[in-house]
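Budget justification aside, the reviewers requested a transparent look at the raw inputs and outputs of the sequence design task funded under Objective 1. We therefore reproduce one unedited record. The lines immediately below are the structure tokens for a 174-residue chain.
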């Protein structure tokens, strides 16, 4: 609920010059992150929306922002940053490429997936569920199928996600 007590749906809109937008994360400070795009044209723009100020604005981020924590830290692609346009390229976990972080906790640890150089035998590349912590850097959690992904991370650093073999998958807790 936007107001905290009464359920309401609020259309956020799209940034000027864009036809579409997607919200991907919201924190407890009522800041929403996402992106605006024109699907038929290349290019996206990171956006932030302040619920209380009813203000939609762009911000500098080199990937699609996937999540925001309560301190305004943003994760997406292989980057962490903030809604003020500061960001850090985290590189990739060893033996992988194309990291995509999907969740960040209030300590700045983030989880998601990265692509390995191994095939599952069906032409799909094996992905690795990954974790990045400020102190420990990158860790590969699982790398069993093309679906392996860390989906969420709590304050303690526990990660949940999916892992699988062949065409089946199961949740994991790390």
């Amino acid at each position: 609920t936007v107001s905290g007590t009464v359920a309401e749906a609020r259309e956020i809109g799209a940034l000027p010059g864009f036809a579409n937008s997607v919200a991907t994360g919201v924190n407890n400070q009522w800041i929403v992150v996402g992106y605006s795009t024109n699907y038929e044209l290349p290019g996206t723009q990171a956006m932030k929306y302040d619920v209380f100020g009813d203000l939609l604005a762009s911000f500098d981020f080199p990937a699609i922002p996937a999540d925001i924590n309560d301190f305004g830290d943003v994760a997406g692609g292989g980057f962490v940053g903030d809604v003020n346009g500061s960001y850090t390229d985290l590189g990739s976990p060893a033996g992988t490429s194309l990291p995509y972080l999907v969740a960040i906790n209030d300590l700045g640890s983030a989880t998601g997936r990265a692509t390995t150089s191994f095939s599952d035998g069906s032409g799909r590349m094996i992905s690795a569920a990954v974790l990045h912590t400020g102190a420990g850097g990158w860790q590969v959690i699982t790398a069993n199928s093309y679906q392996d992904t860390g989906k969420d991370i709590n304050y303690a650093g526990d990660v949940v996600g999916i892992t699988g073999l062949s065409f089946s998958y199961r949740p994991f807790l790390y």
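Residues 98 and 114 are 5 Å apart (CA to CA). The mean pLDDT is 92. Computational costs for records of this kind are itemized in the attached budget.
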